[in-house]
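Problem 12. The chain below contains 621 residues. Write out its predicted structure in token notation.
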Amino acid sequence: MARLALPVGRSLASGYRLTRRSFGRTLVLVALVQGAVAIVAAPLLAGMFSIAARASGLTAVTTTSAAQFLRSPLGVGIAVASLVLVVLTLLTQAAVFAVVADERRHGRLAVVGAIAHRIGARTLLLLRRPSTLLLVPYLVLIIPLGHAGIGSVLTQWVAIPAFVTDEVMKTPLHAVLYTLVLAVVWWVNLRLIFTIPLLVLEPISVPAAIARSWQITRWRSIRVVVLLAGVLVPMTAALGVLALVTPLATYASDAWAPSASVAVGAISLGVGQVVAFFIVGLFLMVQTQVLVTAAASAGALASVVPHEEPLSISSRDDPVAEAAPTDATPSRAARARAIIAGAGAVVASAVLAAGAVPPLAEIADGATTVLAHRGFTERGVENTLGSLDAAHAAGAELVEMDIQQTSDGGWVLMHDPDLNRLAGLDTSIAQLTVAEATGVTVRDDIGHAEPIPTLEQYLQRADDLGQQLLIEIKVHGGESEGFVAELIEIIDRVDGADEHIYHTLSADVVEEFTALRPDLTIGFIVPLAYGGVPQTPASFLVVEQSVYTRALRDAVWAEGKSLYVWTVQDAAQMRALYRDNVDGIITDHPDIALRQLDEVASESALSARLVDAVDRLFISP
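Solution.
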């Protein structure tokens, strides 16, 4: 088989040239299509999932309530409808850009009627084919997890939670396997990068589009990487420049008119978000144009037009566009488009600026609690006396630790369900007695080694240090009857149960714990939650950082509960959470967290808050 051509330079040049020549129309396209997804589709889909949760009798779908959700035909039906809408939205968004790119490639002016006709015809054809269901895993899993090319606001919802990555990366073998899996997903995404343009522009099925994309990219992965890098690198640079420029006005207001800084900062952030929106949209058009041109050059698209042909409007090509002027020709329609786009941008900036006022006006009070996750694991094996000592020395306000019940009813410290990772043993705490468990030495990759401590030993050391603990009660299913009451009795005897606070993944343990000792503080750990705040008698919720939003924080606070976020490892994420005054963050790096907390609490200039907000939006969203 002859090797297909996949020109890099020519495709990139064509993508930028055709987008530039239709710059005004591209701005309108971005405003309409991307705006519809961000302003209408995303909130609608989020609302539908909330409705699905409530249809199942839940306030939120969590890891513990998923079974109840799946038993509700109505809830599952609404969730499935939401998934279908996600797929259709993603496909429509990509299809519009692909059709416009193809029209421009042929030298035609893309008009609404022609776009709607082509997309409508293809959609009806695809809906008749069961093989179209292959788009579901591709659009909602492979694309967002593969991270090849510019994604969508909808694909940002799909991500591997940070706590999963953190746990996997703690074991060298698992880290290697995990990295290989991600590399394979990325490579598959790369090989299938032409699937949607081919599916939209050619009368073929989903399997045929996948096969043709696979063929185009055969032995051409490096070229595809260069094609995408030719778009992603300039886009990243543009966003970086925007991140540097956005706070400039606020620096000036901090120096000369501090009382106006909140307003100046909010306006700057609103305008910056709109500019970022158009930057991403413009480069998405460039990327689509590049891919369509490359696919045409590889002979995968019909009616290939030589790359030298200039962009022109011809009645022979498109009778609908016969009298339509190009963007280079001033016209009443072009001016109208510019006015509409400009007015829309101004309105969007104003709305976003108004929304930015509350978070910018909210001053970090420095009251966020820093909790050391399983102790200070950089200086001792997790959940050992050494890591407890190190966390206390680092200044952690609370030390989070995990306990499990042994086969003879005792309690020792251990996070994992088995001892493979820390001791290389194919057994679990549930299978060992206290004596057997405490005879095991656990080790980390840095070289620390210590025996597993009993709960009593750990409590006594904490009492000697004057260190408050966050005790996670881990349930493995083999606990003795009445284990919650026995556990509270042990803690009371050694150190006083009211000296510490507690949390657990088990909703049943939260219920029983609260019923036995309503005077104690216990939290409910929610790794994943969708639809709202779960119903629980817990005093606080502990959410994974990818689930956290200001809206969730406000909803939790409205119910009189506190909100902790775990496992926060990055300094920028720490600062963002401090800005939101969350009640606590759980981290493996209490030393970094405490330094960041001091810095944020001591910063009075509005520009510092704006820089963190810009970082959250443009650099590390």
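Discussion. The chain has two domains: 9-361, 369-602. Students who got a different answer should revisit the alignment rule from Section 12.3.
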